[in-house]
Every structure is written in C-alpha cells, then in structure tokens.
C-alpha cells in the first residue's frame, strides 16, 4: 500500500452518525460530543463553524468543513445567535427548554429541523472510531479545515444528500462509504495544496529516494529492516538515506518504522482476539516480550494495558487551534 493509503485507512466510518438538518434562522447548535472527527457540509444556505479555540469559518453551499475533536464547537446561522441546542456525547441533544429536539423536531429519516422547507440544509457526519492507523495524519490536521465548493468534486454532496434520507437494506454501509469518500477528497485537496500546512512526511513521498523507502516500510513492516537494507533497496548509501529521510520526514527511518509497527500492533490488539505473540510476529517483532518492551518504551503502557484501555474507550487527542481554508 502507498503511504497515504495506509494513513487514510485509519479514519474509516463504521456506523458513523449522519444527520440532515433543515433550519430557518436564527439557529445555533453547540457540539460537545467529543467525537474525534466530524464533517459539516452545506446543501443549501449558509452557516458559521465557530471553534472554542481558533478562528470561525463561514460555509456556503458545497463547502465542506472537517473538524478535529474532541474540543467543542458551535454551528450557527450567525456567530451572534444564542445557542438553542447542545449535542453531547452519544449524540444526546438537549434544548433550552429541556426537551429532546430530535423527538420534537423530527422530520423523517436521519432528518430534523423546524421545516422541510427551511432555508438552511446541512449534513453532519461524525466519526466514532479511534484507530491508531491514521493518527499521524489526524494529528497534523488543523482544528478546522474548510474546502470551498469550487475546489472539490461537485457530485459527492448531492449524492450524499440523496442517500441520507433513504432507508434501504445496506444503507448504513452506503452512507459510511460516501462519508469516507467525502473525507478523503477533502484531505487529498489539503495535502496537495502548497502552503496549506500539509505535514513534511507527506511531501517526502514525492522524493525519489525517501518515497520508495517509505513505501517499502508500509508494504512490509514485518520485514527485518535495517537502514542498510533499506538503503540497498533504494540504491543509495546508508548515510545518505538516513540523512535524507530524517531531513524530509522529521525522524530517522527506524524510528518511523517503530511508530508504524506499534500503530499496527495497537489496532490489532484492539480489533482482534489474537495473542500478543501473534500480533508481535505480524508487525515485525520476534516475540511477545520484544513487542511489550517496545510498546511500553514508546507508549508508556504494556500491550495488555493498552488492550484493556481500548475496551473501555481510548483517550482523545485535542485539536490544534486554527482554521485553514483551502483555495480553489
């Protein structure tokens, strides 16, 4: 797999929360659901996304906002509009009068609001999964990333808007994949935009030496790699590879490989019943002891403790302040 595919494989929707909101101004929703990642896209009308920390951004039809959690934020018709509804963990909603707005304002399948003819129509998608693969990418995201309509694919949002109101067999899977496509399209635009703040390791993929080295590590992390073996594969000296890799990626090749292996191990420990020894061999460690030593050294907990914590719900990583608006 290429490096970007591996990193984008982490934030994948599985039973994601999706909702169409149809509203007439004035309206304001405060989101405190602690989700790791959310998307807001406008189908009709305009809205403001207002993080607790960082600059606000205005959304127009076709714009997509990617919001890094778990910090709260407000979505409103105007920054000055008083908050009417608070959305908490588990998508529990409360209004100022204490009522459940989803019940009192339900307008059909995955739809709520005050009128089917409302001037504002937006779709919100919330990711609930917390996987280790992709964390390197998610940590690099700004707290708020906005892609204007003219910079994206004009077919995805109408398709998502049409599918979200259907209630057919397999509909949850269809919506998950459409949400994934929308997210990946925004992230690809961000990563490709010069000066948008894309991380250095992404730019390194284009390098004729470091790019192939990264691909080798991602394709076969269990191989008994050394800097010398990696350098031989890409046709340069050990010193040249180590120097160039560290300069472009921000860390030495073996440090990067350790992080990649441990991220894979962390997900395998969370998502399968495999023994620690089996997981160790899958990611390139010769024994459960070797994996345990590396895991505890880098992550501060043993694989067993990680698995136990994962069952209870993993900690969230706070978003970095700031908003980025991509240009078309």
How would you explain this protein's 3D organization?
The protein is α+β, with helices and mostly antiparallel strands. 40% of the residues lie in helices and 21% in strands. The protein contains 13 helices and 14 strands. The strands form two sheets. It has an eight-stranded mixed sheet. A six-stranded mixed sheet has the order 5-4-7-2-8-9, with no helix packed on it. The two termini are 29 Å apart.
Q: Quickly count the helices.
A: 13
Order of helices and strands: HEEEEEEEEEHEEEHEHHHHHHHHHHE
Radius of gyration: 22 Å
Profile the largest sheet: 8 strands, mixed
Shape: globular
Alpha-beta content class? alpha+beta
Helix content: 25-40%
Strand order of the largest sheet: 10-11-1-12-3-6-13-14
Q: Report the uncertain regions.
A: 314-319
Strand count: 14
How would you state the average pLDDT, rounded?
Answer: 85
Instruction: Tell me the span between the first and last alpha carbons.
Output: 29 Å
Strand content: 15-25%
Considering the chains and any ligands shown, give keywords for the structure.
6-stranded mixed sheet, 328 residues, 40% helix, alpha+beta, 8-stranded mixed sheet
In short:
With 328 residues, the protein is α+β, with helices and mostly antiparallel strands.
What's the topology here?
Elements: H1 3-8, E1 17-23, E2 28-31, E3 37-44, E4 47-51, E5 57-59, E6 64-68, E7 73-76, E8 85-87, E9 93-95, H2 101-104, E10 106-108, E11 111-113, E12 120-127, H3 135-140, E13 142-147, H4 156-163, H5 171-192, H6 200-204, H7 210-219, H8 227-234, H9 238-249, H10 253-271, H11 276-283, H12 288-299, H13 303-312, E14 320-325
Parallel strand pairs: 1-11, 2-8, 13-14
Antiparallel strand pairs: 1-12, 2-7, 3-6, 3-12, 4-5, 4-7, 6-13, 8-9, 10-11
Helix pairs in contact: 4-5, 7-8, 8-9, 10-11, 11-12
């Amino acid at each position: 797999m290429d490096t970007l595919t591996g990193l984008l494989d982490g934030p994948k929707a599985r039973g994601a929360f999706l909702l169409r909101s149809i509203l007439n101004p004035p309206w304001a929703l405060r989101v405190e659901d602690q989700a790791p990642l959310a998307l807001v896209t406008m189908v009709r009308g305009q809205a403001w996304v207002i993080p607790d920390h960082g600059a606000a951004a205005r959304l127009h039809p076709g714009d997509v906002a990617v919001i890094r959690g778990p910090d709260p934020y407000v979505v409103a018709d105007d920054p000055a509009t008083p908050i009417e509804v608070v959305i908490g963990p588990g998508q529990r909603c409360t209004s100022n009068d204490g009522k459940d707005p989803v019940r009192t304002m339900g307008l059909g399948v995955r739809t709520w609001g005050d009128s089917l003819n409302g001037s504002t129509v937006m779709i919100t998608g919330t990711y609930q999964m917390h996987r280790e693969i992709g964390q390197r990418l998610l940590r690099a995201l700004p707290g708020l990333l906005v892609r204007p309509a003219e910079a994206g694919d004009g077919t995805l949002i109408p398709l998502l808007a049409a599918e979200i109101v259907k209630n057919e067999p397999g509909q949850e899977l269809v919506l998950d994949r459409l949400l994934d496509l929308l997210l990946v399209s925004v992230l690809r635009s961000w990563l490709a935009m010069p000066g948008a703040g894309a991380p250095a390791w992404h730019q390194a993929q284009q390098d004729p030496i470091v790019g192939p080295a990264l691909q080798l590590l991602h394709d076969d992390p269990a191989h008994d790699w050394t800097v010398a073996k990696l350098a031989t594969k890409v046709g340069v000296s050990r010193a040249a590879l180590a120097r160039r890799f560290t300069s472009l990626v921000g860390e030495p090749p073996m440090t990067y490989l350790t992080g990649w292996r441990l991220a894979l191990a962390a997900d395998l420990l969370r998502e399968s019943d495999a023994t620690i020894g089996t997981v160790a061999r899958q990611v390139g460690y010769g024994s459960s002891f070797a994996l345990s030593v590396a895991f505890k050294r880098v992550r501060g907990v043993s694989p067993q403790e990680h698995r136990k914590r994962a069952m209870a719900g993993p900690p969230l990583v706070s978003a970095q302040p700031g908003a980025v608006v991509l240009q078309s």
